[in-house]
Write a structure and sequence with these properties.
Blueprint lengths: L2 E8 L4 E7 H6 L3 H6 L7 E9 L6 E8 H8 L4 E5 L17 E8 L7 E4 L8 E2 L5 E5 L1
Antiparallel strand pairs: 1-2, 1-3, 3-4, 5-6, 5-9, 6-7, 7-8
Length: 140
């Protein structure tokens, strides 16, 4: 059975790595609850799970929990993301800013490895995966 590497960053800046297989994680419901069963939620700043791309075979970190995004999700606050040069949004949704800024709400996939979603409007029923690389975020 596949083992997942989980990185937990705490509020004081320290971090720990955990290794858990799918059965252990699902026993606690999901990766977030698995970590919160070991550490109180108020001490955790961020949880990431290491994943392997099925197409390229390369490893990457998937964001499962972050206090900034959690606050926005729970309080239904819109977020503005500023994209770095070369990472502009070409979907046309942020066309008034030439792709330099995006605005969206935060959602989360259900499942045993939950990830954040960019929900474009409050009428949307879904969205794409939250892209965090070379972006800055703020509440609006």
């Amino acid at each position: 059975m596949k083992t997942y590497k989980i990185k937990v960053t705490f509020k004081d800046g320290s971090y720990n790595y955990y290794h858990a297989n799918q059965k252990k994680i699902q026993k606690k419901k999901n990766v977030i609850e698995y970590i919160f069963s070991r550490h109180p939620s108020y001490t955790v700043r961020e949880i990431k799970t290491r994943m392997k791309s099925e197409t390229t075979g390369k490893y990457y970190w998937e964001l499962n929990y972050n206090q900034f995004f959690e606050y926005a999700k729970e309080n239904h606050i819109r977020i503005e993301a500023t994209n770095a040069p070369g990472y502009e949004d070409i979907t046309g949704y942020g066309s008034t800013t030439n792709g330099k800024k995006n605005r969206f709400y935060i959602g989360r996939l259900t499942g045993w490895i939950p990830i954040y979603l960019e929900i474009l409007t409050n009428r949307s029923t879904g969205g794409g995966v939250l892209f965090t690389h070379k972006r800055t975020f703020k509440y609006i």
